[in-house]
Automatic annotation (TrEMBL):
Listed GO MF terms: adenylylsulfate kinase activity
Source taxonomy: Bacteria, Bacillati, Actinomycetota, Actinomycetes, Micrococcales
Protein family membership: Belongs to the APS kinase family.
Keyword vocabulary terms for this entry: ATP-binding, Kinase, Nucleotide-binding, Phosphoprotein, Transferase
Pfam families for this protein: APS_kinase
EC main group: transferase
Gene3D superfamilies listed in its UniProt record: P-loop containing nucleotide triphosphate hydrolases
Gene that produces this protein: cysC
Reaction(s) the record says it catalyses: adenosine 5'-phosphosulfate + ATP = 3'-phosphoadenylyl sulfate + ADP + H(+)
Keyword ATP-binding tagged: yes
Record function comment: Catalyzes the synthesis of activated sulfate.
Binding site for ATP: 240-247
Residue ranges crossing the lipid bilayer per the database entry: none
Annotated protein name in UniProt: Adenylyl-sulfate kinase
EC number: 2.7.1.25
């Protein structure tokens, strides 16, 4: 780690960094002249920008669960381009392909290599298919095409590539070129009028079905009740030592739930410190204030039917109890998840070198070293991430929430 100044990246900037490190864009539009170290909201150094604008990777960008994060699929642009044959066609899959789209893609794949580009946003709009679903749909198309080719045919290549698509992402044609494609196909543009009409009718299908069963006045009341239905909100509150894995599990859980359209808000400890609790110290009073602020915001999210996932260290039982009370007063479910990874494991996996600094006296009031951590006696779930992998940890939490895995 250098002594260069640092810049904490937003989600969109993290996506641009991944594109730059993978060779999809030449320079970062936000970095300016270096040297500067680029970090995530957990202050993990990810890359350093030199005076000439060149990038040196330092640590991997944090990933989450879901096929869109699979390393075998999320291949850097330069590597995909290196394997692209002349005439390679990119297919832009920003929405699930229809049967007509699938046929068109198969026709292209009969003569040219195809790269199915899945733009992966970190935020899914309610009611839309998220990145996990789009990636699974793309894999299904690829499997269908390759299966129809037969084992003996010298088939063209069909590659599924999820790529980071933030608000500042380059144009589709530029991304397609970066991944080695000479042309780009955007399925909605070529759909027939029949398919367009069928898709447009889908949102009315439920209403039309109601009117085949009920008289008009009854149908309106059933529709109104369905629209006004209020889902009970939930607060999932993770607590644990620095380096225990709570942020990793919380991010993975929030990403999965959000991708399923469940309206999830992530309140991670370090990110909150940059915004909601900026200026607070790390003495006991400041720590409890920070946790209670997180709990208050989480209770507001849950009060209106959302899911709030929070992941501060939250070392003190009193502030954790206050967060539980805030959620329950809001009429929300509350799940306290203790990430119980042992101190020695947390210290060994420390990405930011904080434990070493704390033991050297450079960081006062550091939880687990110079400040206590009060082990929860009322945890609803306890998970040791030195024994349980992240996907299994997420499945355990989902099961306690009554959500299918």
């Amino acid at each position: 780690m250098t002594s260069s100044p640092t810049r904490v990246l937003t989600d969109d900037e993290l996506d641009l960094l991944e594109l730059a490190l993978g060779g999809a864009i030449e320079r970062l539009p936000f970095a300016g002249q270096g040297p500067v170290v680029l970090t995530d909201t957990e202050n993990t150094p990810l890359a350093e920008v030199a005076a000439d604008g060149s990038l040196t990777p330092l640590k991997p960008i944090a990933t989450a669960l879901g096929p869109q994060w699979d390393e075998a699929l999320r291949v850097p642009a330069r590597d995909v381009a290196a394997g692209a044959a002349p005439g390679t066609t990119a297919v832009w899959l920003a929405e699930p392909p229809t049967l007509e789209d699938a046929t068109g893609i198969a026709d292209v794949a009969s003569t040219n290599d195809v790269v199915l580009l899945v733009p992966v946003s970190r935020h899914t709009e309610p009611g839309t298919v998220g990145a996990s679903g789009l990636t699974r749909a793309a894999l299904g198309i690829a499997e269908r095409i390759q299966g129809s080719n037969g084992p003996s045919r010298d088939a063209t290549r069909v590659v599924v590539v999820p790529w980071p698509h933030g608000e500042q992402a380059p144009a589709p044609s530029d991304i397609a070129a970066a991944y080695g494609a000479e042309q780009i196909l955007v399925p909605p543009a070529g759909r027939s009028e029949r398919t367009r009409t069928s898709l447009a009718a889908l949102p009315r299908a439920y209403a039309d079905a109601l009117r085949r069963v009920y008289p008009e006045t009854s149908a309106r009341e059933v529709e109104r009740a369905a629209a006004a239905g209020h889902q009970q909100g939930t607060v999932v509150f993770f607590t644990g030592l620095s380096g225990s894995g709570k942020s990793t599990v919380a991010r993975a859980l929030a990403a999965e739930l959000d991708d399923e359209g469940l309206g999830t808000t992530l309140l991670d400890g370090d990110a909150v410190r940059h915004h909601l609790s900026k200026g607070l110290g790390f003495d006991r009073e400041s720590r409890e204030t920070n946790v209670e602020r997180i709990g208050y915001v989480a209770s507001l999210v849950a009060k209106h039917g959302g899911i709030a996932v929070a992941a501060p260290i939250a070392p003190f039982a009193s502030s954790r109890a206050e967060v539980r009370a805030l959620a329950e007063r809001a009429g929300a479910r509350f799940l306290l998840v203790h990430i119980s990874t042992p101190l020695e494991v947390c210290e060994a996996r420390d990405r930011k070198g904080l434990y070493a600094k704390a033991r050297a006296g450079a960081i006062p009031d550091f939880t687990g070293i110079s400040s206590p951590y009060e082990t929860p006696l009322d945890a609803d779930v306890a998970i040791d991430t030195s024994q349980v992998e992240v996907p299994e940890a997420v499945a355990i939490v989902r099961a306690h929430l009554g959500l299918p895995g």
